[in-house]
């Protein structure tokens, strides 16, 4: 950081007023640079600008995005190349693309807590098939899932006690992993809203080996 940098919380003043059009552009660029620097320095690590609320991860994610070099995605056709939709859990350990050797543009990946086939998942699969041409569906749930053993009633009662409102939705916890996979596949196969129901398969992902075990 340069020694003459302005103090945090004090807006920097440009060194000289612009005297020509070219000077004005330079001054404007300097001003933008100063403003960026000002914003960066005003945001203490781990705190937001507005409240003392930690948002450091979001800021770091924005920074990583700038450096990620993922431009050009808009040139890839939106209809998935492999005509595949994958329903899986939001678990932070699961990288669906890496797991299945997929590239951007290959498949739809629909995720929620548990990888449970809810009405909203059916909505997404219906759009996937009817508007974007997918034909096959994989349902992938996994060992060590946080939704195993979560009681719908207890969870809803807990929220009701804490907030005074009982959620209209079900938590969709489950006890038997394989049974849940079978049920998810069955919900999809019975949905009248899907165009293609002949290639829907259900799997358990074993987190230890990283391998899929077909259930149905
Ligand atoms: Zn999970």
Topology, please?
Blueprint: H1 21-42, H2 56-67, E1 84-89, H3 96-100, E2 107-112, H4 119-132, E3 136-142, H5 152-163, H6 177-190, E4 200-206, E5 211-214
Parallel strand pairs: 1-2, 1-3, 3-4
Antiparallel strand pairs: 4-5
Bound molecules: zinc ion (ZN).
Zinc ion (ZN) binds next to loops.
Explained architecture:
The chain is an alpha/beta fold and 216 residues long. The protein has six helices and five strands, in the order ααβαβαβααββ. The protein has two domains: 21-67, no CATH class; 75-214, Beta-carbonic Anhydrase, Chain A. It has helices spanning 21-42, 56-67, 96-100, 119-132, 152-163, 177-190, and strands spanning 84-89, 107-112, 136-142, 200-206, 211-214. Residues 89, 91, 114, 142, 145-147 line the site of zinc ion.
Quick overview of this protein structure:
The chain has helices at 21-42, 56-67, 96-100, 119-132, 152-163, 177-190; strands at 84-89, 107-112, 136-142, 200-206, 211-214. The chain has 216 residues and is α/β, with parallel strands linked by helices. The protein has 2 domains: 21-67, no CATH class; 75-214, Beta-carbonic Anhydrase, Chain A, CATH 3.40.1050.
Q: Key features?
A:
2 domains, 216 residues, 37% helix, Beta-carbonic Anhydrase, Chain A, five-stranded mixed sheet, binds zinc ion, alpha/beta, globular, 5 strands
Number of helical regions: 6
| Helicity level | 25-40%
**Class from helix and strand fractions:** alpha/beta
> What number of domains?
2
Strand order in space, largest sheet: 2-1-3-4-5
Oligomer: single chain
The largest sheet is:
5 strands, mixed
Rg of Cα set: 25 Å
> Which of globular, elongated, flat, extended, rod-shaped describes the shape?
globular
Low-confidence segments = 1-23, 35-48
The fraction of residues in strands falls at 5-15%
Number of strands: 5
| Helix/strand order, N-terminal first | HHEHEHEHHEE
CATH class designation of the largest domain: Alpha Beta
Mean pLDDT: 84
CATH fold name of the largest domain, please? Beta-carbonic Anhydrase, Chain A
- List bound small molecules: zinc ion
CATH homologous superfamily heading of the largest domain: Carbonic anhydrase
């Amino acid at each position: 950081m340069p020694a003459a940098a302005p103090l945090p919380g004090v807006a920097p003043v440009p060194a000289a007023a612009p005297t020509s059009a070219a000077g004005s552009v330079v001054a404007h660029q300097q001003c933008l640079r100063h403003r960026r620097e000002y914003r960066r320095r005003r945001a203490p690590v781990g705190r937001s600008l507005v409240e003392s609320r930690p948002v450091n991860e979001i800021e770091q994610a924005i920074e990583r995005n700038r450096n990620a070099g993922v431009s050009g995605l808009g040139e890839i056709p939106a209809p998935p190349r492999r005509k595949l939709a994958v329903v899986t859990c939001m678990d932070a350990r699961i990288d669906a693309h890496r797991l299945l050797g997929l590239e951007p543009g290959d498949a739809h990946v629909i995720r929620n807590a548990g990888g449970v086939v809810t009405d909203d998942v059916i909505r997404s699969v219906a759009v996937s098939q009817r508007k974007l041409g997918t034909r096959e569906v994989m349902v992938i749930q996994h060992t060590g899932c946080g939704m195993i053993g979560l009681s719908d009633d207890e969870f809803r009662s807990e929220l009701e006690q804490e907030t005074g409102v009982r959620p209209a939705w079900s938590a969709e916890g489950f006890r038997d992993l394989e049974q849940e996979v079978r049920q998810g596949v069955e919900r999809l196969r019975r949905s009248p809203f899907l165009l293609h129901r002949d290639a829907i398969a259900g799997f358990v992902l074993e987190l230890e080996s990283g391998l899929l075990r077909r259930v149905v």
